[in-house]
Amino acid sequence: MKCDSARELFTALLDQEIGLHDAMTVEAHLRDCLACQVIYQEQKMQRTALQQQLTYFQAPAELAQRIKAALPSTPATSLSVTRRPRRWLNLSAIAASFMAVVISAGFYFMQPSATERLADEVIASHVRGLITNHLTDVASSDQHTVKPWFNGKLDFSPPVRDLTTEGFPLIGGRMDYLEHRAVATLVYRHRQHLISLFIYPAQTKVIPRVSSGITQNGYHLLNWSQDGMNYWLVSDVNLVQLQNFKVLLTSTTPNK
Ligand SMILES: [Zn+2]
Questions:
Q1: For residue 102, is it within any domain?
Q2: Containing domain of residue 43, as a range?
Q3: Looking at residue 202, which CATH number applies to its domain?
Q4: Residues 106 and 147 both lie in one domain
Q5: 76 CA distance to ligand 1 middle (Å)
Q6: Distance 33 CA to ligand 1 centre (A)
Q7: What separation in Å is there between the alpha carbon of 43 and the centre of ligand 1?
Q8: Which in 5, 111, 152, 242 has the greatest CB count within 10 A?
Q9: Does residue 102 share a domain with residue 123?
């Protein structure tokens, strides 16, 4: 693929509106072409900045109504500055500070939460594994092969369970990066669906748990903490199956 053709597809790739074949071709080109990497990263940053900018202006209609209601109905132009009564000055000062408060509150609440951002990261990692056909660094259904593979690569030892007899065979494991740290990813299969399980030590920073699951872009996610570890499950398998899988994972003893 030539640089020009690759660059034409950057926007589609960023918007995830690209076919699997094109995505793989562009990503392959990006791996080898530093010039395109720079342009791609710039577009990605611009896009993020733009999204944040757009978010800023998405104040709910209710907020606008409350601001309007708080403002005096008399138009300011009908009074000269010198004759403006004290009460009106106070009112406009109150209205201005109220407006500042609601705008910043609106801005605050419109920001994606830490959980949402992390959920996005989890889906992106899972999909990247699928697209690039790089789901595992160590391909094995043997927990006694997968668990030691992480030795020396991570500062913790992830619990590894093979659940083949329960219908969720272990496919293998890989290193990944989530929440600014290296994490262990285990890959399981359920019928034709692939499931990624991300594991890393629970930090002091509390990520809200989503016990009932999140559904985003056709993927289901579950997260929980157990024995000092954080877990994220992601798959396109249906939510009930994913919850069953979570029950199996949390109730069986991992290989030590
Ligand atoms: Zn290029």
A1: yes
A2: 3-56
A3: 3.30.200.100
A4: no
A5: 58
A6: 5
A7: 14
A8: 242
A9: no
> How close is the Cα of 36 to the center of ligand 1, in Å?
4
Q: How far is the CA of 14 from the centre of ligand 1 (A)?
A: 16
Span from the CA of 1 to the centroid of ligand 1 (angstroms): 8
How many other C-beta atoms are found inside a 10 Å radius of the C-beta of residue 220? Answer: 21
Ligand 1 centre distance from Cα of residue 45 (Å): 18
Of 179-183, 194-198, 251-255, the range with the highest mean pLDDT is 194-198
Tally of domains in the chain: 3
Distance in Å, CA 26 to ligand 1 centroid: 9
Q: Which residues contact 250 (CB under 8 A, 6 or more apart)?
A: 224, 226
Q: Is residue 256 part of a domain?
A: no
Beta strands in 143-192 (DSSP E): 170-178, 181-190
135 C-alpha to center of ligand 1: Å?
25
pLDDT at residue 190 in the model = 94
Digit-coded pLDDT (tens) for 207-250: 556 556 777 778 899 988 888 889 999 999 988 899 999 999 98
HSE, side-chain direction, 13 A CA sphere, residue 146: 26
Tell how far the Cα of 66 is from the centroid of ligand 1, in angstroms: 51
**Residues 66 and 161 placed together within one structural domain of the fold:** no
